[in-house]
Specification:
This protein has 165 residues and is of the alpha+beta class. The chain folds into two domains: 34 residues; 123 residues, Nucleic acid-binding proteins (OB fold (Dihydrolipoamide Acetyltransferase, E2P), Beta Barrel). Strands 2-4-5-7-6 form a five-stranded mixed barrel. A hairpin with a 3-residue loop joins strand 6 and strand 7. The longest helix has 31 residues. The radius of gyration is 23 Å and the shape is elongated.
Amino acid sequence: MNPRRKNRMYLALAVLVGMAVTISLVLYALRSNIDLFYTPGEIVYGKGEEKIKPEPGQRLRIGGMVMTGSVKRDPDSLKVSFKVYDARAAIDVHYEGILPDLFREEQSVVAQGVFEENNVINAKEVLAKHDENYMPPEVEEAMKENHHRPEADYKNKPAAQGNAK
């Protein structure tokens, strides 16, 4: 084998190894930044046909409605705890920080954080819907999968509960 051909072979091999290392690093970086979306029912009962449940310490996003009477604020700090529910289950969410102005009970929210033992989410961020008809696409899709439309329940609740408009 002449030296010119040998140099080309080494160059091609170096390019392939470099591409493999680059692709591996990109995939590793993306893997650590992925937050899977769950509804409360999917956290409690599992997601999909395989009934996959999140592991403690896993980063995720949870979407659902804020349960009436569940919001508890610490008077000495910015700590807030509340329950997020869907048609099948309710999950406790703990958050420290300023909540969005539109956050309130019986409203759709998405909380991003870490799943902990006993079905608790330690949220780093809480997002609230921005108008009466908007629902985050992930929440709407998950609610459709669960055959539950929260707007219909919201509109059909009796006025005595304070939710009728």
